[in-house]
Specification:
The longest helix is centred in the first third of the chain and has 13 residues. About 17% of the residues have low confidence. By secondary structure, this protein is of the alpha+beta class. It has 2 helices and 10 strands, in the order αββαββββββββ.
Length: 156
């Protein structure tokens, strides 16, 4: 299969407009993976006739997006608030409102700290612990897996 850069860009535009989150194409020694998920930095592309295709990221990562990941490298102890399901996590009650919780905020057990959307159903995610938010481990609108840590809380 031979795709030129124009065809790959068309695939990227179609993916961006559509409801699919990711697409993978594999045929022989050709492989292309495009994803709208924020935790994917670049597509995986095997050698093809047009080498510039490997330089086209499906999800561009800016320096401001990469910085929070680097700051998470320092280990901090505490209890994790984890995702009870797979879905899209929302750290704000509404797009134009501030985050439920930020680093340094106090959280009570039973308090809503996020919302996870799964199959068009919104589920409030409540804290199991009382303490102070030490780290926010996900980004707003990130797709999360079951049991993925969302927050790290220093217990009071």
């Amino acid at each position: 299969m031979d795709l030129n850069i124009k065809e790959i860009r068309e695939l990227m535009a179609d993916l961006e407009k559509g409801s699919l989150r990711e697409v993978s194409i594999q045929e022989g020694d050709f492989a292309l993976h495009l994803s709208k998920n924020e935790n994917v930095a670049t597509p995986v592309v095997a050698p093809v006739a047009t080498a510039p295709a490997t330089a086209v990221p499906a999800t561009p990562v800016t320096a401001t997006e990469a910085a929070p990941v680097a700051s998470q490298a320092a280990p901090v102890s505490g209890e994790e608030i984890k995702a009870p399901m797979v879905g899209t996590v929302y750290l704000k009650p509404k797009p134009d409102m501030p985050d439920f919780k930020q680093v340094g905020d106090h959280v009570e057990a039973g308090e809503t700290v996020a919302i996870i959307e799964a199959m068009k159903l919104m589920t409030d995610i409540k804290s199991d612990v009382t303490g102070t938010i030490a780290q926010v481990l996900v980004k707003n609108e990130e797709v999360v897996d079951y049991d993925k840590p969302l927050y790290l809380v220093t217990v009071d």
